[in-house]
Amino acid sequence: MLIINADDFGYSESVNQAIAESFAAGLISSTTIMANAPAFEHACDLARRMGFADKIGIHLNLTEGRPLTTGIRQSRIFCDEKGNLGFKRFTHYWLPRDEINLVREEVAQQIHRCRKHGISLTHADSHHHVHTELFISLAVVRELRRLSVPYLRLSDNVRAASIARRTYKANLNWIISLNGLKGTDYFCDLNDIASLPRECMSQDTVVELMVHPAYAADGSLIDAEMKQPFRPLLSRVTRPDKLVSYGDLHHCVA
């Protein structure tokens, strides 16, 4: 089974429209929304109007824009002197308990805002993969369990990496699985999906592919990360007859 998830829903009205177009064309099956992004409310309205509000997870954001809670604005680890988010990955391998609590508060508020706008949330991931930082992941996992968000994106387990990096990712994914938040068997992006054996697209295996639909200057649909036309990129992917969303996984488990 294959989930194609578009990150960054809510980032801008242009990105929102690109994601909506991708849904309408059957190019994607899932998206994750940024609760503190400028076009969040536009995204919620668009999803309801276009009929994919039940295929939305949360794209937790600790790295860009304004936070929703006041406490974290005072943290120089997570915010600049103006109170804007700007956490840098790979710079803090340990966090004081007070900082972890600030993360939990911000994560909870982002989840609450989505639900107040009628987005029930099928799963979670994060902007710039910040949830794959160990101490942040522990805070995120705790809040997802407390607030009944059912799944959390794995750390990339397809891309070639050093033994140390593979071990770190495996341990992180073990934590996600141990806490009952594992929904997929593999996670990767467009650069790496070709490395997956064909049998990984079987009915018994769930793969999440991350994409970033956007518009080029000429109005054509591209992937913002790859900076290439979107449809041709996806045409290289071995696709099952039908894409699934994280919401569909609930029914599979049941």
Describe this protein with a few key phrases:
254 residues, alpha/beta, TIM Barrel, six-stranded parallel sheet, three-stranded antiparallel sheet, 7 helices, hydrolase, deacetylase activity, carbohydrate metabolism, ChbG/HpnK family deacetylase, metal ion binding
Specify the number of helices: 7
Percent in strands: 5-15%
Structural class: alpha/beta
CATH class descriptor name: Alpha Beta
- Rg over CA atoms, rounded to whole Å, is 17 Å
* SSE series: EHEHEHEHHEEEEEHH
Q: What name does CATH use for the topology?
A: TIM Barrel
Q: Which strand order do you get reading across the main beta sheet?
A: 4-3-2-1-6-5
Chain-wise SSE layout:
Layout: E1 2-9, H1 13-24, E2 30-33, H2 40-50, E3 56-60, H3 97-116, E4 124-126, H4 134-146, H5 163-178, E5 186-189, E6 207-211, E7 213-215, E8 221-223, E9 228-229, H6 230-235, H7 246-253
Parallel strand pairs: 1-2, 1-6, 2-3, 3-4, 5-6
Antiparallel strand pairs: 7-8, 8-9
Helix pairs in contact: 1-2, 3-4
